[in-house]
Amino acid sequence: MKSIVYVLTLFIMVSCINQRHDEQSIKIENNYIDLPFDECVDSFYVRKLISNNPLTELYLTQVVDDQLFIISEDDRIIYYLKNDSVVSKLDAFGRGRGEYFSISGFAYSKEDSILYIGSAGSNKILSYKVPSFSFISSIDCDLELSTMTFWAGKIIAICHTSSIESPRLNGIYEIDVKTGDYKKILDVDYLSAVNMGLNNISFSDSELLISVPGFDNIIYKVTNGGLVPTNEFHYGEMNLDRSFFNVDETNSKEYADKMVELSEKEYCLGGSYPITYDSNNCSFWRCVNIDNEYVYLYTILHNELSSSYKLYIPGFSEPVIPFCVNNRWYMSIIEGPVESVVDDESILEGIGLDVIKTLKEQTFDNPILLYYKIKETI
After folding, report:
1. Helix, strand or coil, per DSSP, at residue 282
2. Whether the Cβ atoms of residue 307 and residue 278 lie closer than 8 Å to each other
3. Mean pLDDT of 296-312
4. Which CA distances in Å does 105 have to 147, 212, 234, 301, 321?
5. How confident is the model at residue 8 (pLDDT cuts 50, 70, 90)?
6. 125, 138 in Cβ contact below 8 A?
7. Which among 11, 50, 188, 192 is least buried, having the fewest CB atoms inside 10 angstroms?
């Protein structure tokens, strides 16, 4: 289940904290409530992912209006969907012109129907025309791209130091898609940068939000002038010590010692798929390790108080967690066969019944898509 573990597992695990947090940073309480999906979801619908062929296991998603781009688990294929139907796919694995060895990030410009691909290990950004995926061009870019999206005519990218010998480039950047020129719009610690992915990015009410993990976790709104912080929070006893974020990744011994220490800790870090309502109210997903079991929690900050919920569908064997959020609609990918999804079909009702009915009707055991809006107050 790489698609579950990778998307949220980077936000786990417990260390005591005695340094002072920012005054505006709100403490997230450790307790949580088990809550069925039907009691917290305001609206939902289920769709088949329509394809004439079996699909590989899916991994990460970006949504632009009614267009979806879903990458395969091996980082080689991107499926292009419109209205939940697979229209075409980008499969340009290789080392030739217009090809990539692995996809490190992707971003779509709907104005000119161009998909930009970060080619891992080659410091290049490749562009393809959608939906044909015919190759357009390649530009050089010195950054080590780990996550990308498109905003206001530019790529917004999260980048990090690629190796001990390479320059320190940790941060969030604007990249010119014509020249490859870039400008850093936020410094980010190495540990924070490597723990960021598409799950840190949300489109909400025509705004782009980025959640940056750290000693204090901060949700930023992207503006023409850069990044503006909107909400800030920390995890108290479950927070990493500030020293972890000061590690020098180009000092091999210091870095190795910190990574060993980190592997022995349990902690909570960051917040996935953020939604902000105002400076006092926001929500996000996070993951904690409780008794060697990953627990995925939906957390709401309301007037400096936090509440967390373990959302579940009664009868399901796996948690349902989002793969993206767009205008406050979450989307989860649910993959069959049915017996791998359900523990007890006899207790299914509401959302669970609709999901399993649709999954049974699906061909090739391909995934289905569950879209849902969670109530602002639960």
Report:
1. strand
2. no
3. 95
4. 5, 17, 28, 30, 21
5. low
6. yes
7. 50
Please return the burial class of 43, using the count of CB atoms within 10 Å of its CB with bins 0-12, 13-18 and 19+.
exposed
In tens, the pLDDT along 177-194 reads 999 999 999 999 999 998
pLDDT tens profile 87-124: 999 999 998 899 998 999 999 999 999 999 998 878 89
**What whole-number distance in Å separates Cα of residue 188 and Cα of residue 79?**
31
Pull the structure tokens for residue 202: 């949300």
CA distance 132 to 5: 32
Confidence band for 7, pLDDT divided at 50, 70 and 90? very low
The pTM of the full predicted model, rounded to 2 decimals, is 0.90
Enclosing H/E stretch for 299: strand 293-302
Contact status, residue 274 vs residue 283, Cβ threshold 8 Å: yes
- How many C-beta neighbours within 10 Å does residue 130 have? 21
Total Cβ atoms within 10 A of residue 20: 8
Sheet strand arrangement including 114-119: 103-109, 114-119, 124-129, 134-140
Q: 219-228 burial string, b = 16+ CB within 10 Å, else e?
A: bbbbeeeebe
